[in-house]
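From the pipeline queue, job 12 of 40. The input is one protein chain; the requested action is below.

Action: predict structure.
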Amino acid sequence: MPELTLTGLRVTLEVAQRGSFTAAAEALGYTQSAVSRQIIATEAAVGAPLFERHARGVRATLSGEVLLRHARRMIAHAEAAELEIAGLRDRLAGRLAVGAYPTAAAVLVPQAIARLRKAHPALTVSLWEAGSPAQLRRLRAGRIEMAVVAIGEGLPDYDFTGLRIEVIRTGGGIGVAVHTAHPLASRDEVHVDDLAQEAWIVGAGGEGGPQFGAWPTIEAPRVAYEARGWQTRLGLVAAGLGVSVMPGLAADTVPQGVKWLRVEDPALVLKRETVMVTATEASAGARAMLQAMRDEAAKRESSV
């Protein structure tokens, strides 16, 4: 007697989702005849037709609906088992602690962690958000294995003796966050001259963190509010109380009611960089995280 197979169940699900054998074959990379054979074998295993034809393709029969409901769970359990077994084979197991300054911790580092976890499911990664000096202290004390810190103009001259550093291109530069009802919000890019009369919401970050004031090249800017955290600053922007300098690295995190704009400013020379810091002899987990960060940064830069 024919038996159900995972391949047959996956093909059945694809046919149901696509609504035709042809579309399912294209999605799976199979020939149409191969899809037909899998459906015939699955129907033989359950002893009932699974699809009925109509003018625009096929739809599941009552028997097909029952099988589909169970097939989703069966495939999910099989994939979970495959993932767990892969984790047992994975050489990268255990825990990895990573630190990052707030802007990097908002998008880039979490996406890199997700990339790393997909490749190494047995590795548990924790993220600690903090200013650069605190991260470096923890790194030297062995409490984290990798620190993502900001360096450059306006920041302390950190001591990296005995540590390995690597600059990572985060892309996006810096821009401004404005209310979606702001007159400039209809554009994707503005000139610095358009910002001269704006009210600014500026940062008051912690020790060693990047301090975001008004736009650097505007003389005598009008500061309306000062707030420590990004959430508060963007909340003030969303309330229409001013605009705020914001790195493109965090542009994807703006809340409802806020839009990020690029700024054209020939006089602005950016003198800050993001670096990844590890021990000279980094662990296998830290090395894998470094690669995940490189891959994620390259992906983001190519999409800009």
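Job complete. DSSP finds nine helices and 13 strands in the chain.
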